[in-house]
Hints:
Blueprint: H1 2-21, H2 27-54, H3 60-81, H4 97-113, H5 125-131, H6 135-159, H7 163-189, H8 195-220, H9 228-247
Helix pairs in contact: 1-6, 1-7, 2-6, 2-8, 2-9, 3-4, 3-8, 4-6, 4-7, 6-7
Amino acid sequence: MFINATILFLAAALPGLIIIKSAGFSAKRLNLFLVFAGAYLFSVTIIHLIPDLFLSDEDPFKLGLYILVGFFAQKIIENFTSGVEHGHVHHHGNYSVTYLLIALSLHSFLEGSIVTDSIHSNHSPESVYAHGGSPKILLGIVMHKIPAAIALMALLVHKFPSRFQAYSLLLIFALASPLGLFVSEFLSHGNLMPQEYLIIFFAMVAGSFLQISTTIFIETEPSHKINWQRFSISVFGALSAVLAQLFI
Length: 248
């Protein structure tokens, strides 16, 4: 758990340092990495997270509803984040840093909570707790978090003259995912939350992953014409998720 928490923290904290040390970043490279991360996150949600949910004892219809709730709840969160969690930078937008950090931290908290993987690994509580989290899910979250951290840091540097202040605010975002992991582990291992509620919660997070990843696809292809470079990277991201499912 502590290793996963450290990885989640560094996935947001290190890109911020890169922005501080460098004059800027390649928007094109960031966009291509975002396409890969979105394809991976979408695929690992479809072939790993959602199938595990439907192998639980919950009513499949209700699980589908919870996934839909998570999908649209993430859309509401996006209204306050201006798409930063998708790696988008809008320097001239009229936004509140307070609302932005609260929304992004909530989003990050939910991401971190699912790394506990409390309904995966042979679908029994004993094996789940021994497993300690799915590396496939963790990898998808890390790849998604890196461009989000870069976009957030670019906004904060533009907003605040003090880079120390900007980075301090980024650390709030960086700590949200580890906090989500610790809370989820505490609730699941301490039997403070019924397994049924954990499954509902994870279904909502799966819905949020679908919203994020599909939004990335839509916004990177606004003309609805295939960009073969981006398409190839998307396929590579999807294949990476399939290989991770088969061999990790």
